[in-house]
Design brief:
heterodimer; A: alpha/beta; Rossmann fold; 2 domains; five-stranded parallel β-sheet; four-stranded parallel β-sheet; 9 helices; 13 strands; globular; disordered N terminus; B: mainly beta; 2 helices
Chain lengths: 394, 322
């Protein structure tokens, strides 16, 4: 039944503490956006350093390791405004010897920068774009996806809802494009895991201020009206990445039903309440350094910068191609407080990762759920698996 | 020899009662208690209330105290083994997790997970006498049998730091696989074993050359590699057999101490983390965090012969001679 196994022979030399003269310097670029959509919740307003703070913390961690290996890491960030040329910004950093970039950019901007950077050997770690097309038809050989895709988030949520036997979903979709993509991911997840979308409704964004005095009075009567007369359902799924209405749904639906998706039970890569598998150490380090809570974007940037540190630690080089090859290879494994190693899918360069389900105060569950089996890795039950890929890496 | 044969014949329960009476102390991370087990009866005979989040636990060399690191209270509590009551504290520095005493029982080295530091404590005077800066999230602590080299593993740095106990300086660092959790020397000092929880391996290091000379990998039929997460390691005094707790894989691997081949996998409780031998090495006890119990392995027969319910999320275990 249980059989014993492999012992591989290795001979790793100890790493001597070298002199400062031959230190390996690894500069990392960070390209972010300076405009951020305002959130409905006052406690969820994005900080000015959302994302880049995570990268900075990981660079600190990489340097703590680096001092034993005589490696030093630094991050240089550019926050792009709407009128800025992203390619020029990337080239400006490349001109200073940077070939490794962490990005928090919209899909089209990321593609522009990645395509311009290819001939210069630049590698990009996508920490901010969840678009599945970047992992499918628009995949690139020099773009590693650290952020989970919408399909991964939706699959993580769907597995839990199906495990709970909440299989009948009322899907409420915002009127912006990202909301529609989120809804498409939920439809796909319903089909994969045996849930049923009993009805879809669109919540039109008619504009207006995020907050207003005594606005609550209106919302309290609007949401019950909007959600009434639906066929019987178990859970309302909100597809509202644009944060127009979803946080208003819990406790206000016409029928007493839980909410999930963009509000209520939210699938995410990270939450400030996550404390399992040693995560409390990272949460504490982050809070000490930045005096705020760590967001999913911070974590995605942290993970990207740790992937770089981990690869440099092993290849002992700052060469972007060698780093990329190592990360794509079988020896790469990152510990990121998710209870199992994170590795990279070789068919689309997506980081495999568990998905946290949080209500904003505690982590309710972590997917993949038990019983969702896979021949290679249970993490591949989340998102686009090898047989479904349309990605041709170039 | 004949008891072993009888065990193999399935009469193990007859002999459970014949074990010498030792006392096992189990830290329950969630309950904030230490369960006291009589190894003669295989029963919990007392539950001691301790501080917040007890994890690392060990006997002092003189067997007078059980030391338990209560991380969220930033201290190490001392349980008097005579009375089984808390008799004092040690100034461990912030968030202590694992610690090791030097062979002469005078100095305690503590990993401060939240502070990238190893704190050094004079046990008799109960004062801090120094610290050493190490990598990110220090955890595993091993000391060479001659007390000259302290090894600390740091979880996010993925290294074993070799610290000269005389100068208190890191002399070298060896890279191992992801999230190294535990370090222990063979009794003769010839090998250092380090478990990598996320990497899924045990590195066998030559402590003189500071080289990883072998890596043990694990494969359990019908199980994906991800849940196989090595944490606790215990090696018999003769160095011939090593046991590795495989976390959420719910198994303990038995490793030949010479060839480093995995000989067997023993099914224990859920999420097995740390282990301790009875002083006569007849039994190995494991803490199973998710199933809230302790499995008893018969070391000669390589069989699980008993299970004892303890508190919530049992984490570490230490066994006294009394």
């Amino acid at each position: 039944m249980i059989r014993a196994i492999f012992v591989a022979l290795f001979a790793f030399a100890a790493i001597p503490i070298a002199s400062a003269a031959d230190a390996l310097n690894v500069p990392v670029g960070y390209l972010g956006r300076s405009e951020r959509a305002e959130a409905i919740s006052l406690v969820e307003q994005p900080a000015a350093d959302d994302g880049v703070a995570g990268a900075q913390l990981a660079i600190q961690d990489d340097n703590t390791t680096g001092k034993f290996l005589n490696q030093s890491f630094a991050v240089e960030a550019i926050r792009l405004k709407a009128q800025d040329d992203p390619v020029a910004a990337a080239m400006q950093l490349a001109g200073r010897g940077i070939s490794l970039f962490i990005t928090d950019l919209p899909a089209d901007t990321l593609l522009k920068v990645a395509d311009a950077g290819r001939e210069h050997g630049l590698i990009f770690f996508n920490a901010g774009a969840s678009d599945d097309r970047l992992r499918q038809d628009d995949c690139r050989g020099n773009v590693i996806h650290v952020a989970p895709s919408r399909f991964m988030l939706a699959d993580g949520l769907a597995q839990y809802l199906v495990w709970k036997r909440w299989r009948r979903w009322l899907l409420v979709i915002g009127s912006h494009d990202p909301d529609k993509l989120y809804a498409a991911a939920m439809r796909r997840a319903a089909g994969r895991f045996g849930a049923k979308i009993i009805q879809e409704r669109v919540f039109e964004d008619t504009g207006g201020a995020r907050r207003s005095d005594s606005g609550l009075v209106q919302i309290q009567s609007q949401i019950p009206l909007f959600t009434q007369s639906a066929p019987d359902y178990d859970v309302l799924i909100a597809a509202d990445e644009s944060q127009v209405f979803a946080p208003y749904l819990p406790y206000r639906t016409s029928e007493p039903r839980p909410v999930a998706g963009s509000a209520g039970l939210i699938p995410t890569s990270w939450d400030a309440s996550h404390d399992q598998w040693g995560a409390i150490q990272l949460q504490n380090r982050f809070r000490r350094s930045f005096s705020r809570r760590m967001t999913a974007l911070d974590m995605q940037a942290w993970t990207a910068a740790r992937m770089i540190g981990e690869a440099v630690e092993h290849v002992q080089s700052a060469d972007a191609q060698r780093i990329l090859d190592y990360i794509k290879g079988p020896d790469f494994a990152l510990a990121a407080f998710k209870g199992r190693k994170l590795t990279v899918r070789d068919w689309d360069l997506q980081l495999r990762q568990p998905i946290l389900l949080t209500d904003g105060r505690v982590v309710v569950s972590v997917s993949p759920q038990e019983g969702f089996l896979h021949q290679y890795s249970e993490l591949d039950t989340l998102g686009i698996d090898r047989p479904e890929t349309k990605c041709r890496l170039k | 020899m004949w008891p072993r044969l009888m065990l193999a014949a399935g009469l193990s329960m007859v002999f459970n009662g014949a074990a010498s009476a030792f006392t096992a102390y189990v830290s329950n991370e969630r309950s904030n208690t230490v369960s006291v087990i009589d190894t003669n009866k295989w029963e919990v005979v007392k539950t001691i209330k301790v501080g917040q989040r007890p994890r690392g636990i060990a006997l002092t060399k003189d067997q007078k105290y059980v030391l338990v690191a209560v991380g969220d209270d930033d201290t190490i509590q001392m349980i008097d083994t005579g009375t089984n009551e808390i008799a004092g504290t040690l100034p461990s520095g912030p968030d202590p997790e694992l610690f090791v005493e030097d062979p002469d029982g005078k100095t305690l080295y503590v990993a401060n997970e939240d502070d990238n530091t190893v704190t050094i404590i004079d046990v008799e005077r109960r004062v801090q006498i120094g610290d050493v800066q190490v990598g990110v999230e220090p955890e595993g602590m091993g000391i060479s049998p001659d007390g000259k080299i302290l090894v600390n593993t740091s979880e996010t740095t993925n290294m074993a730091h070799f610290i000269d106990t005389a100068t208190r300086k890191v002399v070298t660092s060896v890279l191992v696989d992801a999230r190294p959790r535990f370090a222990t020397f063979k009794r003769d000092g010839s090998e250092l074993w380090i478990s990598s929880e996320v990497g899924g391996t045990v590195s066998i290091i030559d402590p003189a050359k500071h080289e990883v000379k072998q890596k043990v990998e694990f494969k359990i039929a019908g199980m994906r590699p991800e849940p196989i997460q090595p944490v606790g390691i215990n090696i018999t005094r003769d160095g011939k057999t090593g046991f590795v707790a495989l976390g959420p894989a719910n198994h303990v691997a038995v490793i030949d101490g010479t060839t480093h081949q995995v000989m067997k996998y023993l099914l224990v409780g859920q999420r097995v983390w740390h282990m301790a031998f009875t002083p006569d090495e007849k039994y190995l006890l494991t803490t199973n965090g998710v199933s809230n119990d302790v499995s008893v392995i018969d070391v000669a027969a390589l069989k699980v012969v008993n299970t004892i319910q303890v508190g919530q999320l049992p984490w570490g275990i230490a066994i006294s001679e009394h």
